[in-house]
Model the fold of this input.
Amino acid sequence: MLGGSRQGDFLAVVVHRQRSKLAVTTNSTNPDFSKGDGLVPAIAQDAATGEVLMLAYMNQESYDETVATGRAVYFSRSRNKLWRKGEESGNVQEVKGIYLDCDTDTILIKVNQIGGAACHEGYSSCFFRQVTPQGLQVIGSRVFDPKEVYKKK
Done:
């Protein structure tokens, strides 16, 4: 089912849940991975509240798996491998929509955050600190203790 929707300079990619897979409707088949040496930024946003949860990176393989499974998969630059969000913590991201920016080099993923925390430090959002004249202020509440969740095996 091909066919996209252009609104101003923003190319929208519409994702529909069909059984356990996602169907993508778009004018462009993929993000432009060539602009970032094979990686593009991917912003995860809570589909219900609009809160920005995290920023990660995707390559073609992680993008394809995200589209195919309906669960967010990123590329870990520090580990140099695919990072299936929640594989250790259980805090997976169920994809509700995938959007590309006007240059097709940034991805916005609207998700249902399972487990309540997107951040590996135990907060609902990785953006739990605010810059103030007094310095960084923690504005979030911890959902879990990372020492308990990420025990070395």
Observations:
- The chain has two helices and twelve strands.
- Residues 1-13 have pLDDT under 50 and may be disordered.
- Residues 75 and 82 are 5 Å apart (CA to CA).
